[in-house]
Amino acid sequence: MIEISKNSSNPLPSWNDGPAKKSIIDFITKTTNEGGAEYIPAADRIACFDNDGTLWSEMPVVQLAFVIDRIKSAAPQHPEWKTEQPFKAILESDVNAFKEGGVKSVEAILAATHTGITTEEFDQTVKDWIRAAKHPKTGMLYADMIFKPMLELLNYLRANGYKTFIVSGGGIDFMRVFSEELYGIPSYQVVGSSGKVKYEVKDGKPLLIKTPELNFIDDKEGKPAGIHQHIGKRPVFTAGNSDGDYAMLEYTSAGAGPRFGMIIHHTDTEREFSYEAPQVGSSLDKGLKEAVKNNWLVVDMKNDWKEIF
Amino acid sequence: MIEISKNSSNPLPSWNDGPAKKSIIDFITKTTNEGGAEYIPAADRIACFDNDGTLWSEMPVVQLAFVIDRIKSAAPQHPEWKTEQPFKAILESDVNAFKEGGVKSVEAILAATHTGITTEEFDQTVKDWIRAAKHPKTGMLYADMIFKPMLELLNYLRANGYKTFIVSGGGIDFMRVFSEELYGIPSYQVVGSSGKVKYEVKDGKPLLIKTPELNFIDDKEGKPAGIHQHIGKRPVFTAGNSDGDYAMLEYTSAGAGPRFGMIIHHTDTEREFSYEAPQVGSSLDKGLKEAVKNNWLVVDMKNDWKEIF
Q1: Which pLDDT does position B250 carry in this prediction?
Q2: Cβ partners under 8 Å of residue B132, min gap 6
Q3: CATH number of the domain that A41 lies in?
Q4: Which H/E stretch holds residue B63?
């Protein structure tokens, strides 16, 4: 974990000097300057970060890679999956067939891989997987494909009294397993999508069982709702990378006083990938178009980041 | 706010010397003694507290007093409430008629008082109310009827690296308004019952509207589930005062390593009230019977607390 003190002379070493870096430092400086016009008390310094594509790489989405690995390793016990969707699509790596199933596909694979086990069994499965799983192209551990400039930003915010939260469409139970170790974000500062859990005492042992019933989807308009349910305060600093983050950025910026909205724009085909590459397709459109109007910083990964990982 | 340093010679001045006080101090000392056999790393020092009857007085339940005040002040605009349950019962202070309606009664009054407004409007209403509302018998502000020994305990835990959480059947949005000021517990460390919220942009202004749809009831078996959803870790220290806290105490104690369970037993008819008084009726039965077996500390308010408020 990178540690940064409050008064470090260069708190964001992996960021190139320029307007992006300057605007971040200016914001954090002015909002922590006691007595200044734009001072924010420590209790209100809430900073929210999307995860996939904002804090770490999302091609492929890491949790999806986890799910696919789980499906593949359980397939021998489920011969029916060879012909049954969405499992067939997963086993054949047929993205389009999977997408055709929409939300139902996602629910089916989550039910098969994330439920009917205790929360502790699930945690252990994720822990074992994330320690070893590697990106298919880079050969790097997924756990190493965290954006170094964003880690520095998280630390810089925390060194200045900000509380950092993850607010992601990803599974809350999935992210919590590594959020503390990888990002320095404790489990109770993670907001994500979730299924319901059921408490039962089995053979005298109290257990929480993950059920297939959906609890909450933390995406789009769900993000401000998730922030309200978990954090209970409007953030003053929010970073995202897709239109799934639009509502949370909008909600953040509409608050009174100084606010900071940030969009990570994937522009670096060589070092990571670019939204403009035809095989990727962009999940960022509205946010990019309205960034100027909303006074959001668009981070150009290619030009603003000295290092990526 | 009472401040206590880690090495204060008397961290719990409102507790009488005796086995209760000693067992608390022993637990906190041994779990923070680095290198000791029962050391708990700071990241796992999660302490959960019920609110009503554990951190403040619950006769009457404060949120119910709030709801009754809201119903009474809105009654002139609702002549139908004079004959319609559960409103009639509220306006006539008829507890039995209200209880007959069960969960439906609660939902109806929550819908009438807690929904259809923005989260910020609700916060302001609670803030104004809690500043002025007084207990019908003591004449004290509800906000002053916090148990001083428990405030000292919260501070003592925090001074030793514990994170303190509220885990209450009360409304999460209600408690968050005062949790920071009264208990030093930030909004994101409050777990409670909740309705759903809906995000919408109205006249260009993003709003979160409280809807009548129930989201979660944080009571009994719901408490371990609420802890999982919000905190994502099993607590090592839990305090409650009723059988609504049994599951959360049980869940806490079943974890590996040192655990502390505490039951606040209301035994002081003179300074507060006693569960044994016939007009009160006890909501604590199973917990009391099984406290010894579970190694839970039963705090006898009359004998263990030097001061109550």
Answers
A1: 98
A2: B141
A3: 3.40.50.1000
A4: helix B62-74
Which residues of B are less than 8 Å from A230 in CB distance?
A: 188, 230
Q: Contact A206/B254, CB-based, under 8 Å?
A: yes
Half-sphere exposure of B57 (CA within 13 A, CB side): 26
- Average pLDDT for A187-215: 95
Residues B281 and B299 in one domain: yes
Asked whether residue A225 falls in the same domain as residue A242, the answer is yes
Same domain for B222 and B179, yes or no, is yes
Q: Is A247 in Cβ contact with B197 (below 8 Å)?
A: no
CB atoms A233 and B173 under 8 Å = no
Whether A202 is covered by a domain: the verdict is no
Look at residue A1 and tell me whether its pLDDT is greater than 90: no
Could you tell me the strand order of the sheet in which A297-300 lies?
A: A205-216, A190-202, A163-171, A46-49, A237-240, A260-265, A297-300
Rounded Cα distance between A46 and A230, Å, is: 12
Q: In total, how many domains does chain B have?
A: 2
Q: Does residue A37 lie in a domain region?
A: yes
Q: Are residues B238 and B284 in the same domain?
A: yes
8 A C-beta contact, residue A162 and residue A47: yes
Q: Give the chain A residue whose CA is nearest to the CA of B178.
A: A232
Rounded distance, CA B103 to CA B9, Å?
Answer: 48
| In a shared domain, residues A280 and A149 | yes
Residues of A within an 8 Å Cβ radius of B = 43, 119, 163, 165, 172-173, 176, 180, 186-190, 194, 196-201, 205-206, 208, 215, 221-222, 224-225, 228-233, 247, 250-251, 254
Residue B255 C-alpha, separation from nearest chain A C-alpha, in angstroms: 9
- Domain limits for position A30: 19-60+144-192+216-304
Q: What is the DSSP letter of B183?
A: I
Do B124 and B247 lie in one domain? The reply is no
Domain annotation covers residue A309 = no
pLDDT digits (tens, 9 = 90+) for A96-150: 888 888 888 888 888 888 888 999 999 999 999 999 999 988 999 999 999 999 9
